Amino acid sequence: MIDYIKGDLAELNPAYAVIETTGIGYCIHISLPAYSALQQQKTAKLFIYESIREDAHVLFGFLTQAERQLFLLLISVSGIGANTARMILSSYSAQEIQEMIASGNVTALNSIKGIGTKTAQRIIVDLKDKIIKVAGISEQLPINAPINSLMKDEAISALTMLGFSSAMSQKAVSKILSEQADIQVEQVIKLALKMM
C-alpha cells in the first residue's frame, strides 16, 4: 500500500492534484480544503488511500494522517463510498465534522450534498463512540447543545409573542447565550427585554 506521495505539483484543480515523482505523474483525488492549501505550492506531500476496484485504481490524497483516518472512518459506514466521504470532507473541516458526529448533529450532516437524514443518523450511530475515543472530543457536547437550542427557541418564541420582531429577538438571545451558557429561560427573556 502507498502511504504517501511527495513530489512536484504538476497540476492542481478542485477535484484532483497531479504529483510528479521520479518521472511518474500520480493523479490524486483531493478535497476542497486540500485544494486551497496546495494552491501556492510547487511541491506537495499527500497521505494516500488507494481504492482498488475491478474497473479502476483510484488514489485519494489528504494533507494529514488525521484527515485520512477520518476518511477511513467515514467509508466504513454502510452506504458511504469514497466520493461521498470526499464530499463530506470538502463541506466542513475535519474538526467540524468530528464535532458534528460527537454531538449527534443530524441537521448539519444532512445539509451536506448527497447526505440524507437516514445516512446522517447512520454516520452518527456508527462513528460517535469512535470519534469521541480517537479525537478526544468531550461527550458533554450532545447533552448541552440540544438544551441550549431548545432554550434559545423558547426564549425567541416568548419574545415574539410579546411583540418583538423575530430577527431582533434572535440577535438578543444569541448574544446572551454566547456570554452565559448555563442560564434559565426566564433569565434569558428578562435580559433580552432590557436589551431591546
Helix/strand order, N-terminal first: EEEHEEHHHHHHHH
Shape: elongated
CATH topology of the largest domain: DNA polymerase, domain 1
Q: How would you characterize the largest beta sheet?
A: 5 strands, mixed, barrel
- Strand percentage lies at 15-25%
CATH superfamily of the largest domain: 5' to 3' exonuclease, C-terminal subdomain
**Known CATH architecture of the largest domain:** Orthogonal Bundle
Fraction of helical residues: 55-70%
Structural class: alpha+beta
Q: How many runs of DSSP E, i.e. beta strands? A: 5
Question: Please, what is the average pLDDT?
Answer: 84
Kindly provide the radius of gyration, computed on alpha-carbon positions and rounded to a whole number of angstroms. Answer: 22 Å
Strand order of the largest sheet: 1-2-3-5-4
Tell me the number of structural domains: 3
Poorly predicted regions: 138-147
Question: What is the count of helical runs?
Answer: 9
Provide a descriptive summary of the structure in words.
The chain is of the alpha+beta class. The chain has 3 domains: 4-62, OB fold (Dihydrolipoamide Acetyltransferase, E2P), CATH 2.40.50; 65-135, 5' to 3' exonuclease, C-terminal subdomain (DNA polymerase, domain 1); 140-195, Helicase, Ruva Protein, domain 3, CATH 1.10.8.10. It contains 9 helices and 5 strands. It has helices at residues 32-38, 65-75, 82-91, 94-103, 106-110, 117-135, 140-161, 166-179, 185-195, and strands spanning 4-12, 16-21, 24-29, 43-52, 57-62. A 5-stranded mixed β-barrel has the order 1-2-3-5-4. A hairpin with a 3-residue loop joins strand 1 and strand 2 (16-21). It is elongated. The termini are far apart. The model is unreliable at 138-147 (pLDDT under 50).
